[in-house]
Amino acid sequence: MNFAREGLLFIAVAAVVAASGFGFAISRRSWGLWLAAFVLLLLALWVAYFFRDPERIGERGPSLIVSPADGKLIMITEIDEPSFMQGRAVRLSIFMNVFDVHVNRYPVEGVVKYIHYNQGKFFNASTDKSSLENEQMSVGIDTGRYRVLVRQIAGLIARRIVTYSKLGETVRQGDRMGIIRFGSRVDVFLPFGSALRAKLGDFTTAGVSVLAELPK
């Protein structure tokens, strides 16, 4: 099992705390302390599970949009996106709960032409206003024919967005683009006229599920 490098410190700390709990329980010989140590062990296992980073293989192609995140497709909206798309776009919103893989991936291959961080609030990521008011990082990719925007949005619990993208770099479809810690949401903005292959309520897998096809 691979783990995201951003989670290694959390995993190590949780493991040390759990081991210390068992050591304390052994020295005191208390059933209450044994129970507390067991709870700490479960928490340490959950932290490791949260930061898992499995390899992903899926359908690829210049006309395809693959999911940037694991989670549930909670919104499909037609909106105006002036910052990078510079016009009408289709926004697909994927909500990640604390049991989903939180490593995000590039939905298309192309050149990173836009990176923008917006410091904001921490509303529930499943609400519509979180797309405007929550802390977020936007990454715009130029495929050569179209533009696609990915927006990592912090949630109610999430307090840290990590993005690997650099302006001018060429990125590959399905490669890792970052991670959001502890519950969050990812929006992907597609060119207007894209043909959707996913529907509302679908559960997506980053780098595997195909969300749509770009206009012909």
Description:
- 38% of the residues are buried.
- The protein is an alpha+beta fold and 216 residues long.
- The longest helix is centred in the N-terminal third of the chain and has 21 residues, at 8-28.
- Strands 9-5-6-7-11-3-2-13 form an eight-stranded antiparallel beta sheet, with no helix packed on it. Strands 1-14-12 form a three-stranded antiparallel beta sheet, with no helix packed on it. Strands 4-10-8 form a three-stranded antiparallel beta sheet, with no helix packed on it.
- The mean pLDDT is 88.
- It has three helices and 14 strands.
- Helix 1 (8-28) packs antiparallel against helix 2 (31-50).
- The chain is elongated and about 70 Å long.
- The protein has two domains: 5-50; 64-213, Glucose Permease (Domain IIA) (Distorted Sandwich), CATH 2.70.70.
Overview in brief:
By secondary structure, the chain is of the alpha+beta class. It has three helices and 14 strands. The protein has two domains: 5-50; 64-213, Distorted Sandwich (Glucose Permease (Domain IIA)).
- Beta percentage is 35-45%
| Overall geometry | elongated
| Number of structural domains | 2
Largest sheet: 8 strands, antiparallel
Q: Note the gap between the termini.
A: 39 Å
Number of DSSP strands? 14
Radius of gyration: 19 Å
Strand line-up in the sheet with most strands: 9-5-6-7-11-3-2-13
